[in-house]
Amino acid sequence: MLQFPEYVVPDFSREPFLSAPDASFAPAGEGYLPERFYATTIYPEYFKIGGRWRLLRRSRMDCAVVLRGGEPVAVEPRLVKPGEPVAVGRVDDGSRGVYVHADCFRQPGAEKPAAAFAFRTGRSRETSFSQDYDALYELLRHERDHGYVVWVLGPACVFDSDSRAAMAALIGRGYCDCLFAGNALATHDLEAALFHTALGQDIYTKEAAENGHYNHLHTINLVRTAGSIPAFIEKYGVSDGVMHALVREGKPFVLAGSIRDDGPLPEVIGDVYASQIAMRNEICKATTVICLATQLHTIATGNMTPAWCEAEGKIRPVYFYSVDVSEFAVNKLRDRGSMRVRGLVTNVQDFLVNVERGLR
Amino acid sequence: MLQFPEYVVPDFSREPFLSAPDASFAPAGEGYLPERFYATTIYPEYFKIGGRWRLLRRSRMDCAVVLRGGEPVAVEPRLVKPGEPVAVGRVDDGSRGVYVHADCFRQPGAEKPAAAFAFRTGRSRETSFSQDYDALYELLRHERDHGYVVWVLGPACVFDSDSRAAMAALIGRGYCDCLFAGNALATHDLEAALFHTALGQDIYTKEAAENGHYNHLHTINLVRTAGSIPAFIEKYGVSDGVMHALVREGKPFVLAGSIRDDGPLPEVIGDVYASQIAMRNEICKATTVICLATQLHTIATGNMTPAWCEAEGKIRPVYFYSVDVSEFAVNKLRDRGSMRVRGLVTNVQDFLVNVERGLR
Amino acid sequence: MLQFPEYVVPDFSREPFLSAPDASFAPAGEGYLPERFYATTIYPEYFKIGGRWRLLRRSRMDCAVVLRGGEPVAVEPRLVKPGEPVAVGRVDDGSRGVYVHADCFRQPGAEKPAAAFAFRTGRSRETSFSQDYDALYELLRHERDHGYVVWVLGPACVFDSDSRAAMAALIGRGYCDCLFAGNALATHDLEAALFHTALGQDIYTKEAAENGHYNHLHTINLVRTAGSIPAFIEKYGVSDGVMHALVREGKPFVLAGSIRDDGPLPEVIGDVYASQIAMRNEICKATTVICLATQLHTIATGNMTPAWCEAEGKIRPVYFYSVDVSEFAVNKLRDRGSMRVRGLVTNVQDFLVNVERGLR
Amino acid sequence: MLQFPEYVVPDFSREPFLSAPDASFAPAGEGYLPERFYATTIYPEYFKIGGRWRLLRRSRMDCAVVLRGGEPVAVEPRLVKPGEPVAVGRVDDGSRGVYVHADCFRQPGAEKPAAAFAFRTGRSRETSFSQDYDALYELLRHERDHGYVVWVLGPACVFDSDSRAAMAALIGRGYCDCLFAGNALATHDLEAALFHTALGQDIYTKEAAENGHYNHLHTINLVRTAGSIPAFIEKYGVSDGVMHALVREGKPFVLAGSIRDDGPLPEVIGDVYASQIAMRNEICKATTVICLATQLHTIATGNMTPAWCEAEGKIRPVYFYSVDVSEFAVNKLRDRGSMRVRGLVTNVQDFLVNVERGLR
């Protein structure tokens, strides 16, 4: 039986919390923060306001904390309005009204946080991953009914027929609540639905189609003609792939535009900061995040994902997986200290095929 | 003495050019192209219009060809206006009014294109790079006076004090006409100017500054307070680094936003398609492009860079370098067939230090 | 149904074979070959001797060809005896009595060698591997009854409990006829049998055992005390793992020593050239070779594996797989031109678990 | 001015040293050690023998400690003779007669071991290396006159003309006291001297020589004909490259054979355990070790290199550098805990060219 570590509720009836002053706030400027602004972390954070310790909800790293309606709110600095009161000061041990609760989870029935060490060390191709797979299967079975799983996919996930089918099956069976990707993933997934190719190369036989470089441009043009991905899927009778599964299951997706895009597809968001907002709105619900073979989206998502969430009325950890064939990519988030990340060093094709089989 | 390969001007007085019909055009829809639209390549392309063969100027790969004022113009599909005449048909051997001149350069004084093979094979850590460095030094000496060199930099270029200084020196000595980068490069370069750190870590001693994760957030806030990078540089007396060198030398830069950005800095362009336009406006002038340790920007730039340019009244090759510590990144552009790329597999720190020394 | 490409028997009744002279031979010196010695390739090679074209059996690349008892024999240069007649001359088109039959296989029912292209291009993390897995399953089912499969394993194959169990199961079900490895693989496999660790780290939980660095030294010492791996297995009741499966099934293994060895285990061969001989004796029987996560052993094995073999009275291809998480390692053999290699870029843990499941 | 950290001499007049019993010894068996044998570390180790604490000289990791002539001696287990007294017990805090002095160096004029943290964390392509280069230049200038520098080179070091010349120049200027390599490095270096190729490809232009695969086989044959590398160098008037520089300067080299060797060259040692002995005899003198692009030799050398040495009558650290383009390779030694390694993630070509320039 899956057991999450227990949240340790801080005892604010003790010092230094008890006699700490309220957190300090200063007004924002036009597009900038006050000097010595406080920046948020991935941990639960409490602010003393009007003598009461308040948990900062919907947090994310590197935000300003703004007082809105008496509540502390984590706001990206560029979204803070001129004159809003912004938390200032960088002492976070509770003595000045701000408390970062870094060591907030306790393993049930255990004194020492056993797994801590293993997850903090670097992952390499030679790390043993059997337990990580088993733990992930157990976790996803739980999340299907009780959590919110965000998948973050690089285009390579649909360059191979088996992994594309595996991801579609996982969506179909309820293991994906939301998808983050870019224009390329959606384009090549739909190209595969029409032509069985990605970038003009067959996703099973690897044969290059004649004039195959037109396949993705043609696909994009057809989707733009149809007006939207769902309209395209219906018009052309698309019946397989990742985008089809999402549309059929009614699951949301965020397609963030990038400077390498052709097209783009109609649903792709051109403004990266609008993409950030759309992504964060989903991440605020996330209980598990799984990032595959996309360094940019992984870092972007990691930056906005706190180490904790509220689910079923409780505070529990957010689980964050990063899977890539390169140690550098897998360990990058970890090195930035932005997350407790469980990294797997492998080809995402195999990862997806494994996970789909392991959940049958 | 540097000698460029000679451009072979097609002889349009011969068949199949002579009796070929004009290129065909069909009207665009609302946001989409006509069926069987023609898509551009990286090579010189000629379109027969009114019985005359016209070179498509300011080209880039994967564009539509639109007739504007009687001239063929390469236009990104999303920028084609409803009703505009768009070239259609995918025969490109000249017999139908469209000619892709793929084999357009001839080595001076040589029958066989000697270097062709070597540049087409994959590059690895075990490839010999001495000649590539020597050729690059010779090329850059030429370009300083006669060309337009665009550098495309990942943030790691400023994570190290020597490579940051080397890049600034190259700008100062006239070897950089334009910079493409993202918010991170500019932010960490300015962070280094203020704090001698990148992401809070000293760029020489590697020591972590206390509360160092604030350094880049603080830097961003100060630049936003100042209103622009030049205003910040002046206000805080910044006197070193890449951004300072660009501003001092009056060189343009394009900072393309991405979903992983904090901030952003004022000059960063939030809309990725606006970034593409800004980048392409510079690439249309480029004679040499050098991409360092940034997969996303390298692919984006590669996609919009043709294999040829017009400089000093002649058609000559564009030289495109991709430098990364990973074979996968270096070879990725090449595999997509989008460019004749000269790849170097190494750490960009050493590359920059080497190039700066080699050009003394 | 698996169909091998057909061997095209050369027609020696035609020119230039018919009027070609016999191959030339010159005597070897003391430890060296005559000037202009001929060196073997990975392809079938024929030598005209006494007016008859003779196939060089048990071939391998980069050998000398020595006449022994009237037969051409491929001999490593260091093993040629002083005075033996060694083939000389480097014309290999048949006109001088030596014929390299490079284009020797024809796909059944097809004119064009369809798969050739795909297997010659580089493999990357973004290559589609579904078909490679399917083809491998079909091949291994055939080989179990009709072939001879040599596995070449790096130590990481036993660093993970699932992959170690998968490999043992493959041996138990008849999919492995011989194992090549080094001291480390055998040591850590036996360490896992005793302590459930590899290099002191649990192969499932990743927990570091107390004083765990002793585990492998202790294991080696116990095996040396027992006198052999089989004796150790019996004495300590070992009942799982790769070495146990090999011993139980009576399958041969070659453990080649290297300069990084502790110990070594009793069966490890200290002299690398004796290891080469032991390996080549097995490779001469091989119909399929599968190399996992070991660059040194993969290159060594690749160098001695021809592109063809004789099995069931016919000449057919040898299939050679190289699996590694690094493109560089996977593509290295291919770049040296030494083999037609099918590369998969992935973590060998997943590869082994996949293959074991795919063959159930 | 270069200052080494100071060695902290243990105070054996205090507890627990004072009342500790002598270290325990038990007799070895035939080819194996007694139960609970003690295994050495990379740190200074002291054994109480006859009431006196004795430093284990010429140490290396994972050895047995044998009493020979009253002195503790670090002996590879396979070299312990039957009946010799071997240290037993695994308590190493001094209380049982064995003391591992792990924290033995103190930075001069500093309380905290400042550099410790930076060197213990993983190195990546994004680590700042400027200081590492500067420190290495300073160190090598010292070592030229006062130390013993062992270079460990993979074959890629001579695949490029500039890096091959840089290494030869470093040898010529006194910065290399001994070379470890394999058959391939020496072969391709001598091939380059004869043909200006490595594996048949020009080391400057990258052009493939006709029949170029013969170049290295031919080179090997000529060296074997000449009888030795020095004889070959003289006979063929070789005047450049790494091997030539070593022979001219009279510097020793150890060429360890491996299973991938062609040839081998006459000086190559076929027995890997004989190679280990030859290497360790040199490592016992080493004050600095620099390993470039060779995972096998780097690990082998790392395993036998202690963290300390005696030079100029003092105990000082051994400095160990590992340079490779792959993070995995660079960090591998560190992960095994076998050494304090300074890793640089870059192409060794650039590293060698940089170091040669930096030392001019």
Detailed description of the structure:
The structure is a homotetramer of 360-residue chains. Chain A has eleven helices and 19 strands. Chain A is α/β, with parallel strands linked by helices. In chain A, the strands form seven sheets. The first copy, chain A, has a six-stranded parallel beta sheet with strand order 14-11-10-15-18-19, with helices on both faces. In chain A, strands 4-3-8 form a three-stranded antiparallel beta sheet, with no helix packed on it. In chain A, helix 5 packs across helix 6. Chains A and B meet through helix 5, helix 8 and helix 9 of A and helix 5, helix 8 and helix 9 of B.
Q: Largest interface by residue count? A: A-B, 47 and 47 residues
Count of helix runs of chain A: 11
How many strands, which pairing sense, and closed or not: the largest β-sheet of chain A? 6 strands, parallel
Number of DSSP strand runs of chain A: 19
Element order of chain A: H for helix, E for strand: EEEEEEEEEHHEHEHEEHHHEHEHEEEHEH
**Percent helix of chain A:** 25-40%
Low-confidence regions of chain A: 113-120
Q: Name the quaternary structure.
A: homotetramer
Task: Give the topology, please.
The structure is a homotetramer of 360-residue chains.
Chain A: E1 6-7, E2 24-27, E3 45-49, E4 52-55, E5 64-68, E6 71-75, E7 85-88, E8 98-100, E9 105-106, H1 114-120, H2 130-146, E10 149-153, H3 161-172, E11 178-182, H4 183-195, E12 197-198, E13 201-202, H5 214-226, H6 229-235, H7 242-249, E14 253-256, H8 272-283, E15 288-292, H9 295-304, E16 308-311, E17 314-317, E18 319-324, H10 327-335, E19 341-345, H11 348-358
Helix pairs in contact in A: 3-7, 3-11, 4-5, 5-6, 9-10
